[in-house]
């Protein structure tokens, strides 16, 4: 009889523990929502390539949200090795930051470390990667780039690219603006798409880094993508998709679906990350 009398108390105690557990989970979830004002979406396709040389990652810490995307150079061996090392190095170094004032030197430092580690692992073999990295912290965007992958801000239905492409074409355009060569020398140059700066290059120059962080507005979408995206979709097409009431994940997946549907014979690996600032 005494065992039976204790059953209701055990039930009540069990319910109380369950309620407290659910309350803790709820508070933790609410805390996560309050500390992160960024929604993240991504998508990737191998395209017509035999291997996936693109690599990407994102992480959120008390400092902010970081996203990194690297496009391993398919024309060289070990593109996947280079892109993986580069992204992992940037994420690892970002996780070490404990104050926002460390963000500006973070980009060139991580780039130098990535380049050294790639060169060391290649051991004389050919390989390399482009890389774009973005950090949203305290309502501001910090960024760095090397190669021809893209960082863009989608704001007020407009696609705004914020980094330069480190290609021979950019060098030729500068020479054209200085009136050293004719316009045809830029447009018709057979090697204009060749990279002149990338990670895994023994003569690596430097990473392009924002001169000052960009203040963000609610609704801004920061887009990181490899050239497999921008060589397949026009800016207008990207603007139309990003203007739709889609989550970052759904928008990224829709863009990848279009790339796959077009099935271009030489379609490169294509990767996109979308960070929506709320």
What does this structure look like?
Keywords: Membrane, Transmembrane, Transmembrane helix. It comes from Paenibacillus agilis. This is Serine/threonine-protein phosphatase. InterPro entries: PPM-type-like_dom_sf, PPM-type_phosphatase-like_dom. Residues 39-277 form the PPM-type phosphatase domain. The chain is α+β, with helices and mostly antiparallel strands and 278 residues long. It folds into two domains: 1-35; 36-277, Phosphatase 2c, domain 1, CATH 3.60.40.10. Helix content is 41%, strand content 24%. The protein has eight helices and eleven strands. It has helices at 2-35, 79-95, 103-122, 168-177, 183-187, 227-230, 235-242, 248-262; strands at 38-45, 54-60, 65-72, 129-137, 140-146, 150-155, 158-161, 208-209, 214-215, 221-225, 270-277. The strands form two sheets. Strands 2, 3, 4, 5, 8 and 9 form a six-stranded antiparallel sheet that branches. The chain has a five-stranded antiparallel sheet with strand order 1-11-10-6-7. Helix 2 (79-95) runs antiparallel to helix 3 (103-122). The chain is globular, with a radius of gyration of 23 Å. The model is unreliable at 6-35 (pLDDT under 50).
């Amino acid at each position: 009889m005494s065992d039976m009398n204790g059953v209701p108390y055990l039930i009540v105690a069990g319910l109380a523990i369950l309620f407290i557990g659910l309350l803790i989970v709820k508070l933790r979830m609410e805390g996560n929502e309050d500390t992160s004002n960024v929604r993240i979406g991504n998508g990737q396709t191998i395209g017509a390539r035999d291997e996936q040389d693109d690599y990407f990652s994102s992480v959120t810490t008390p400092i902010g949200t970081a996203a990194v995307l690297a496009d391993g150079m398919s024309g060289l061996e070990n593109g996947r090795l280079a892109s993986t090392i580069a992204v992992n190095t940037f994420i690892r170094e970002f996780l070490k930051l404990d104050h926002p004032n460390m963000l500006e030197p973070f980009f060139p430092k991580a780039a130098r470390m990535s380049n050294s580690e790639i060169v060391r692992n290649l051991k004389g073999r050919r390989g390399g990667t482009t890389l774009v990295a973005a950090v949203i912290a305290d309502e501001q965007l910090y960024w760095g780039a090397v190669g021809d992958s893209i960082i863009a801000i989608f704001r007020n239905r407009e696609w705004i690219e914020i980094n330069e492409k480190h290609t021979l074409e950019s060098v030729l355009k500068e020479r054209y603006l200085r009136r050293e060569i004719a316009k045809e020398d830029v447009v018709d140059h057979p090697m204009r798409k060749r990279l002149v700066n990338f990670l895994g290059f023994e003569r690596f120059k430097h990473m392009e880094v924002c001169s000052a962080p960009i203040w963000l507005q609610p609704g801004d979408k920061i887009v990181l993508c490899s050239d497999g995206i921008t060589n397949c979709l026009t800016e207008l097409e990207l603007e139309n998709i990003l203007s739709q009431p889609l989550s970052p994940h759904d928008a990224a997946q829709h863009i990848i679906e279009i790339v796959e549907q077009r099935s271009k014979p030489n379609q490169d690996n294509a990767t996109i990350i979308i960070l929506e600032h709320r």
